[in-house]
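Recall the central idea of this unit: under ordinary conditions, the amino acid sequence of a chain determines the structure it adopts. In this exercise we apply that idea directly, starting from the sequence alone.
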Amino acid sequence: MKKMDKHPVYLDNAGTTPMVPETIQALDDAMVNSWGNASTTNYYGRIARQTLENSRHLMAQSINAADDNEIVITSGGTESDNTVIYQTARARQKLGKHIITTKFEHEAILRPLEDLEKNYGFKVTYLDVDEDGQIDLQQLKDALTDDTILVSIMTVNNEVGSHLPIHEIGEIVKDSNAWFHTDAVQGYGAVPIDVQKDHIDLLSTSAHKINGPKMIGFLYRRDGINLPSLIRGGDQEMKRRAGTENVPQAAAFAKAIQLHFENDQLQKNAEKYWALKKQLVQGLKEHDIDFELNGAFDNDHMTPQTMNIWFKGVRSDALLTDLDLAGVVAAAGSACTAGSLEPSHVLVAMYGKNSPRVSESLRISLGMTNTSEDIDRLIDVLANLIPKLKNAD
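Accordingly, the structure predicted from this sequence is:
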């Protein structure tokens, strides 16, 4: 095993990504030059407003929104998801109290839905997911009723990287009474998203997943969707989200969007990540490591940057600890549940609560700063650790 470098190899980009020099510079420039209150009409406010609207335009373009004003800038994915769940329930409950989602959504979706079920009399249908991390579209069709007011299905799963058939889902939901929301926090900047072609009504994103700053994201809200603000106060964001606009972070988010979307970068990144993932699989095989992949391993059903691996007979908590000591940062599931003693609800949904995969799997998620050398380092460390950890039991 190679000697640990000064800086660990970072392979948990699904948890968060590092800001890069370009986004840091954009943040710094906006803090110096666009520090005014964008809701005021004075000189400094007008400069800030222009920076904010330029950023909003790039956000809208990145998902092919019909109008820039369909973008509501928020504090990130959790706020956007919570806004969709709670405010759709409040705005549309007279039309029905049924919502459809999947069993392996992010907690920012599942926990508000549990609250609606427990305390407000809503009924939620949780669609099954198979071992490839995919839903049965017929089950979705069968679950839709006249009382269904919302279908919320993620674009990409945050733990296993499965890419859901968003276009097909949109085609199904558009002919119903329901709004279609997708939590695109993991898919945004990784897979192509077109809200018009995919018939998406509502969409959530977060900047820190694409090398932007934390605590900023946006909620796409199709024109005509009447969704009251979750955050009450002033009339910012066209009365759709109260609170003084975070202009510097919006500018940094916009720069991150340029880095990921312009000059065919989405495709270039995908090709790079697939090459790195194949390198990892080949390296594990060459070292005779006993493993299987969780979920599919093809471009149609999986996002390019994430993979989840079952290392048979090796507890993920022990492996993560030893990887960290060896200078490799990875994850066993969602960063939002890293302190939880509960098994991954994603792997439970896919394989059942009694499957050894639930406690013996590792998530590797790549980012724009990763290299082939990082994967070589990971393979080297795993080849050293896996036999020791298996023998320890």
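The mean pLDDT is 95.
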